[in-house]
Amino acid sequence: MGALPHGLRKRVELGRALALEPQLLLLDEPMTGMNLEEKEDMARFILDINDLQGTTILLIEHDMGVVMDIADRILVLDFGMKIAEGMPEEIRQDEAVINAYLGQASVQ
Q: Which of 52, 63, 68, 57 is nearest to 108 (CA)?
């Protein structure tokens, strides 16, 4: 597996986890080190897992653009403290989240 490109290797790892047919899938930074195209492919794959298999997915991810695009509900931590919880539209508008993660111009 070491000869595979990084993005493909991550998808293979995810496929291996799915072989166990989990009801809950925990993903910790699945997009780390990926380029934009690889992130888009992985995001579609994650959405398909949820849609086609009904698998609940808990995603830990620092790329807020990815999170906003694929999550139904978001819980935001800042230094281990919960600062917000809600739908992506709510999180996008939350001042504490904007200050901690999004900067002054919020992610659209």
A: 68
